[in-house]
Amino acid sequence: MGISISRRLLTAVAAVTLTVGLVGVATTHARTTAASSPAVAAAAVKPNIVLVLMDDLDSLTSPFWDAMPKSAAAIRDTGLTFSDNFGPTPTCCPARSTILTGKYAHNTGVFNNGGALGGFKTFLDKGNETNTVATYLQAAGYRTGIAGKYLNGIQTFPTHIAPGWNDWNVGVDPNLYTGYNYTLNENGTMVKYGATPKDYLTDVVAHKSVSFINKAVAAHQPFFWYAASTAPHRPIPPAPRHASVFANAIPPQRPNFQEPDVSDKPSWLIDSAAARSAGVTRTNTDDYRNRMGSLLAVDDMVSGMVETLRAKGQLANTYFVFTSDNGYNLGAHRLVQKFVPYEESLQVPMVITGPGVAHGSDRHMVIQPDIMPTILAMAGIAEPADIDGVSLMPLLRGKTPATVAELLRRAVRRKGSERGGRRADRAGPGRGPDGLDRRPLVVGGAEQPLPVRALVRTGEARGAVGVRALRPPDRPVRADEPDQDTSRAGDEQVRHHPPGRPPAHAVGVLGGQLPRVTSRTSPVVVVTLSLVCIC
Question: Which residue of the set 92, 93, 533, 535 is catalytic?
Fold first, then answer.
């Protein structure tokens, strides 16, 4: 980088992990915008917030908006689409834990769907439930509610109700994935649903969504609603009324579908390639048809909420956040599901619409830990000091994020910043209204205006403005630690990778090991730089 540093000036070494999105990143203007949506009538009125969390919805292979035209019109066509949104740990429970807390898996302690390093019990034991998006919003006067899927493993604690929720309607058995014959814990009462059309899970979540909205509006209380059907996670079928719509659909195939040459892939994929390819051949077509068909009921659910809000005069004062916990492979690299650091698993859809949000698309890289602080910012709640994400409100309002040069300069040169993930003083020359230091830094002879996510693992730079510190986990993650998902979804049981090898999703995690990065690996490249702190 052209920087000569005397060893006598060396006082600390900061390991900075830069996760660089290489998919069509623009270096100047990364967004296209149109007119803003209607503003809130009265600034003093707190907005409502609806989070629609899909289960295993991929953003690269399935044309999911084709199955959701009403949602596309109400959310996509009025809001901001983040085309480079990534889930760092593409597995259900770790991803949902991150969405609830704004923290990476190594800070929630939830790396998997079950076992010693995952599942609801780990989430609970690590104390995560005391500081979630729900607890913060409830403390700020919001009426909070959830219906559907919470966290994998909660079936072993079926009577549990998490703090922060006024209305709790959470599935407590694995049948939730089938759409029928499941049990919901409805505010402490176990309600068993059957196998008739009216019991179809997404429709039940839709009914509870409308009911919750009506009650909150009648109480003149701002609300946060979390709608979490298991669609399109296998094996949920389409609702009976939609059974024939995608019955003959042909699954789309990306160039890496059933990739013939996997010799450049990790050994676990090379060793299992033939069996995995046979699994794709056996399940992919029916899986795709069920996935697309199940989204039709989600479209009805979203439309029902939109129309209820419109009828109540609340639509212009409501944010919608539409996203998924992780992606899905659908045969890419001979893989069926998620779990691995390929783009099909990592990249997930996200669209946000609401008061003051511009319509268009944004190609800056954003990540799952950003969802929680963004929702808090919508409600006017200060960002917690111990989280890893940052609010996306500047992007929603059209502001420009920090550049690589700014992040590197703050990470290496800033002195006196607070330790433990707290922000440095926002005052000072050269800073914009968002507190970002706008003074240029020349690296190798030129500024580097590439948007990135900078994660500072150690050193005095921790907590620099706009940079989130990676707080050390309770203990390092051993390379030989098994990563096994023993949860069942219908007849499904998956072992992610052979024992003795690091988890595929240990990318960038303290103590983990980076998988081999090849030209066919996801365009999300993790680069670890050793930088010298000059004090």
Answer: 92
